[in-house]
Automatic annotation (TrEMBL):
Keywords: Acyltransferase, Transferase, Tricarboxylic acid cycle
CDD domains (alphabetical): EcCS_like (cd06114)
Catalytic residues as annotated in Swiss-Prot or TrEMBL: H307, D364
Entry GO terms, CC: cytoplasm
Reaction it catalyzes: oxaloacetate + acetyl-CoA + H2O = citrate + CoA + H(+)
Protein name (database record): Citrate synthase
Length: 428
């Protein structure tokens, strides 16, 4: 293949270098386009064909349904690693030795207390507040209590900001859930593992000894790994572009949480459960909802289906679907919603509308069924997605800052009014 692309504009030919990644993805490097063409730019709504960066963190192939973190397959990591190991891998690029992992966890534990004044901010929210809005606010508020997390020019400053947020974020997640449930805001135990501690903080009751469940720990560990990174998705691109202005890590993460909240993105896991509940209330009439999803006049979409990149099964959905059967079986939970989900999936995979558009179940289609079986309220589902995605956001933000990427500032094509003279109000 040639290493150049040629573009002809108004009879003038321009050559641009082609760059090829380690997985043979090819991109046209158009860094000089505007300069050599006298101002011509490109336009690509939703960036469906546009790369924002070169990254060494996550590789996915949407056609083949491949997902790898730093070269390791998601299947291997979900089966053989734990979430803190995967967080270390994503952020620093290698699977940690036991010594490195122990130090990482110890540094995180040193910062797993949140300034008590943050509770005053949390108290100001009504119980009806959506947890994603609360979490975005509290995450941004952490900057006020940890100002050193802003000017992270050195690797050491960056490391300190990273272990701080990995220590404090699970506390904010637990407090956000407990606030809605009217439960006291607590801490877990330093002698527990990272995921064990998250579950204890979320579920401990003030009047009885918390019993750890191996099933829940393994289920949450796997779900968090599966959500940990996904290259340049909407919320990760948000974290990168906010961080490119040299805003601090916590502020950049807060922006990512807000982007993830949307029902077309991370908010889909909540929307899937609400959709499945609606179908169940409606007598389980999946055909009616399939019809709505295909009706262009109807805004209804089959939530948890389709993906910007995967035009094959989302490999995470495959793993989560299997895990849903296992977890519900282990917990002895019979959930008719799971059967409705499987019925919907079967119908969609045999329906021409979905097959033609290559719409398959994505990561959000089955995850909520497991969260619900674990006793997590539906409004907390996207918060759990954010908890899993935290190390990926951190890794991408760190990579962007270490590579000294320029501030993100896209161009546009103006389609508004041409110059016109001002009219005084009497003449309008
Ligand atoms: C995540 O990007 C990531 O990596 C995200 C994520 C991550 O890990 O970060 O994987 C997490 O966000 C998963 C996606 C969760 N969202 C949903 O489940 C919401 C439902 N899905 C859709 O809204 C949609 O599929 C998107 C938003 C996910 C992708 O939309 P695209 O790529 O912009 O595709 P599109 O909207 O242009 O749709 C193409 C066609 C259209 O029909 P036509 O105009 O060609 O006739 O497919 C149709 C769409 O109407 N379509 C659907 C559909 N998804 C797409 N029709 C019915 N139901 C759906 N779910």
């Amino acid at each position: 293949m040639s290493d150049k692309a040629t573009l002809e504009i108004n009879g003038q030919k321009h050559e641009f270098p082609l760059i090829t990644g380690t997985e043979n993805e090819v991109a046209i490097d158009i860094k000089t386009l505007r300069g050599v063409t006298g101002g011509v730019t490109t336009i690509d709504p939703g960036y469906k064909n546009t790369g924002s960066c070169e990254s060494a963190i996550t590789f996915l192939n949407g056609e083949k349904g491949i997902l790898r973190y730093r070269g390791y397959s998601i299947e291997d990591l979900a089966e053989k690693a734990d979430f803190l190991e995967v967080a270390y891998l994503l952020i620093f690029g290698e699977l940690p030795t036991q010594e490195q992992l122990d130090k990482f966890h110890s540094d995180i534990k040193k910062h797993s207390v949140v300034d008590d004044d943050v509770k005053k901010i949390l108290d100001a929210f009504p119980k009806s507040a959506h947890p994603m809005g609360v979490l975005a606010s509290l995450t941004s508020a952490l900057t006020a209590f940890n100002p050193s997390s802003v000017n992270v020019e050195s690797e050491e400053d960056m490391y300190n900001a990273i272990v701080r947020i990995l220590g404090k974020f699970p506390v904010l997640v637990a407090w956000t859930m407990r606030k809605k449930q009217g439960l006291p805001l607590n801490y877990g135990s330093e002698d527990l593992g990272y995921v064990e501690n998250i579950l204890k903080m979320m579920f401990e009751k003030p009047n009885k000894e918390y019993q750890q469940s191996e099933i829940l720990v393994n289920a949450l560990d796997k779900l968090l790994i599966l959500h940990a990174d996904h290259e340049q998705n909407c919320s990760t691109s948000t974290v990168r572009i906010v961080g490119s202005s040299h805003a601090g890590l916590f502020a950049s993460l807060s922006a990512g949480i807000s982007a993830l909240w949307g029902p077309l993105h991370g908010g889909a896991n909540q929307a899937v459960l609400e959709m499945l509940e609606g179908i169940k209330e409606d007598g389980g009439d999946t055909k009616k909802y399939m019809g709505k999803a295909k009706d262009k006049e109807d805004p209804f979409r089959l939530m948890g289906f389709g993906h910007r990149v995967y035009k094959n099964f989302d490999p995470r959905a495959r793993i989560i679907k299997k895990s849903a059967d296992e977890v519900l079986g282990d917990l002895g939970v019979e959930d008719p919603i799971l059967d409705i989900a499987k019925g919907l999936e079967k119908e969609a995979l045999e329906d021409d509308y979905f097959v033609k558009r290559k719409l398959y179940p994505n990561v959000d289609f089955y995850s909520g069924i497991i969260y619900r079986a674990m006793g997590i309220p539906v409004e907390m589902f996207t918060v759990m997605f954010a908890l899993g995605r935290l190390p990926g956001w951190i890794a991408q933000w760190r990579e962007m800052r270490m590579r000294k990427e320029p501030i993100g500032r896209p161009r546009q094509v103006y389609i508004g009014e041409n110059h016109r003279d001002f009219k005084t109000i009497e003449n309008r």
